[in-house]
Design brief:
Elements lengths: L3 H22 L4 H7 L3 H30 L5 H21 L3 H19 L1
Length: about 120
């Protein structure tokens, strides 16, 4: 049986795989341009940087899935990676786009609270 915490952590992991795909492979394609509100010129000039960001989002997802794989023994792993997602989301919201607060930071905070309460 899956707990609410497990479901939320899994959804956050899937979200970060989606972000990885957008940043690494679709950054300068219509889906990436729309998702990040970039012009073709901006996307072309920042494609390598975006791919690097995407890779980091993949590491966050991998850590969350690793924590889920470990089951109850993975609580500290989930807490660590959710905290990383939360900090990255807060920083992104403060420096890049307020939207990141709602897409990344708040879900991470909810997941962290659920994991800690489980």
């Amino acid at each position: 049986m899956y707990t609410l915490a497990t479901i939320v952590v899994a959804l956050i992991g899937v979200l970060h795989i989606y972000i990885l795909v957008l940043e690494m492979f679709l950054w300068d394609k219509p889906a990436g341009l729309k998702a990040f509100g970039r012009t073709q010129e901006e996307a072309t000039s920042s494609k390598v940087l975006a791919a690097n960001q995407g890779l980091y989002n993949g590491f966050l997802a991998a850590g969350l899935f690793w924590g889920l794989y470990l089951g109850p023994a993975g609580t500290s792993v989930k807490v660590f990676f959710l905290a990383c997602v939360l900090v990255a989301g807060l920083y992104g919201a403060a420096t890049a786009s307020r939207k990141i607060l709602f897409v990344q930071a708040i879900p991470a905070a909810i997941g962290l609270a659920l994991v800690l309460m489980a």
